[in-house]
Amino acid sequence: MNVRFPRQNARHPLRVALAAALSALALAPLSEAAAQAAPPPQEKGPAAADAMLHALEVQYPTPYRVMEAAEVKAVLDRVFAYLDRVTPAEVVDPRGAPVTDFARADPDAVLKPGDFRLTSYEWGVTYTGMLAAGAATGDRRYLDYVNKRHDLLARLTKAYYPAVRADADRARAPIKSFLNPHALDDAGALCHSFLKAKVAGATVDYTQMIGICGDFVTKREYRLLDGTLARGGPDGKGGHKMRPLPDTLWLDDMFMGVPTMAYLGKTTGQRTYYDDAVNQVLQFSKRMFNPKLGIYMHGYVEGMRDHPELHWARANGWAVMSMVEVLEVLPKAHPGYNAVLDQLRAHIKGLAAYQTREGFWHQLIDRNETYQETSATAIYTYAIARAVNRGYVEPQMYGPMANLAWNAVAGKVTAEGQIEGICVGTGMAFDPAFYAYRPTSVKAAHGYGPALLAGAEIIEMNRKYKFGLNDSGLMYQGVR
Fold first, then answer.
1. Distance between CA atoms of residues 103 and 162, nearest Å
2. Which residues, if any, are the signal sequence (predicted)?
């Protein structure tokens, strides 16, 4: 027997009204109260003793909430005040008297001593952090900090470069490491800061400085046969530099050179610079990225069968930051754009698996017995938040992670504006002890620029997207 049900009238008024109501409910944004509320209990009678245990207050070691923009700026302002005080933009003679006239290039003049060096690669990152903080907060002091120091470096370059170029071995200058670079550390990050400032409209004349550092990064730094930036090249005496071995790749150099290449493409319009930047990202990644773990090894020695696969946190930071900087200016029509984007996504996904419950990442990412390190955590905060802001990764997945990481970094900023938990300068090694026992110091310059970058990008992310507690968990709650 075939049973036939009576046909429903799809246009019945009650059915139409019900469908419209359900559609409106599905499309309407949840109010904050509704988004945070758990479903009401359906049972009748007194509540069981365990009914509200899920709502007990939790004692999180790192604040588990979104920091308001004013709170973030207060942290950045403490860092700024400290850095402005301890990095004077002055030149002095041997007696300590100020030198302001550079018409005669006094070979005995030096930059006035402070806690940090104005021409180190770490300070190249700090200048970019100041630019970002100024843009995010609207506070001109951050931009003025950069302009004042960049202008001083430009004037010193004009005064001292002729003598250094004429006799690099014997000439003396307050910024000789920049005027006569021997490694990417001497030129790359500074050049990146000059180029970013120029793109942002800074009034400093960067022509001569970009010529010096851009030429070194793109033409003079040693490379492997396929063009990959490397250390341990010829020493000029028939041998090789031991850095630490011939033909060694340091993951750090993805940042020390590659963003400069991309920004030279932006400022000159020459595609060859973009091509070089893309090739560097892909060639470093082919050798050094572990796709199973989603993270990079720190060092690689060309020609060896096995390599020291130690996943140092800050080096992974330089890599992920390099990719977001390249994508910032790489044209989407470039044939390598999607490959770089895919690599960035793979790296961020890999890093996500290793964030600790306090919001940090370990000094050796996949070794929980090593300490939680601040500079790498700040770099990841910046890169992940930037990736969220640019639509490279989903805010639902990565926004809460970035907010937790920022809160962890902010907790390391002292009342005086110093930052704790920063690993000091670190070379490359073949054993875990080297990395695990590297000291930390508030005078390690590597963490200040990343902290500024992180705070600035968190302000931008939380200005664009809303995050809040939903049934006790920190969750994405939509576009503002």
1. 12
2. 1-37
Q: How far apart are CA 372 and CA 436, in angstroms?
A: 10
Distance CA 164, CA 372 (A): 43
Q: How far apart are CA 385 and CA 136, in angstroms?
A: 13
Q: What tokens does 108 get?
A: 């005995």
**Domains in the chain: ranges and CATH:** 61-115+354-480 (1.50.10.10)
DSSP state letter for 102: -
Backbone angle region of 230, left / alpha / beta, with phi > 0 → left and psi within -120 to 50 → alpha: beta
Q: Are 145 and 130 in contact (CB under 8 A)?
A: yes
Place of tokens 């008024």: 13
Q: Nearest Cα to 216, choosing from 252, 244, 179, 243?
A: 179
Q: Is residue 173 within 8 Å of 105, Cβ to Cβ?
A: yes
Task: Specify whether the CB–CB gap between 105 and 163 falls below 8 A.
Answer: yes
CA distance 399 to 453: 16
Distance of CA 400 to the CA centre of its chain: 17
Tell me the two tokens of residue 380: 């990841």
Q: Read off the pLDDT of residues 349-380 as tens digits, 9 standing for 90 and up.
A: 999 999 999 999 999 999 999 999 999 999 99
Q: If we measure between CA atoms, which residue out of 147, 146, 180 comes closest to residue 162?
A: 180
Burial of 146 (0-12, 13-18, 19+ CB in 10 A): buried
Instruction: Quickly count: other Cβ atoms within 10 Å of residue 185's Cβ.
Output: 20
Q: Which two tokens stand for residue 427?
A: 């070379």
pLDDT tens by residue, 282-324: 999 999 999 999 999 999 999 999 999 999 999 999 999 999 9
Buried b (16+ CB within 10 A) or exposed e, 361-382: bbbbbbeeebbbbbbbbbbbbb
Q: What is the CA radius of gyration of the chain?
A: 26
The model's pTM is: 0.91
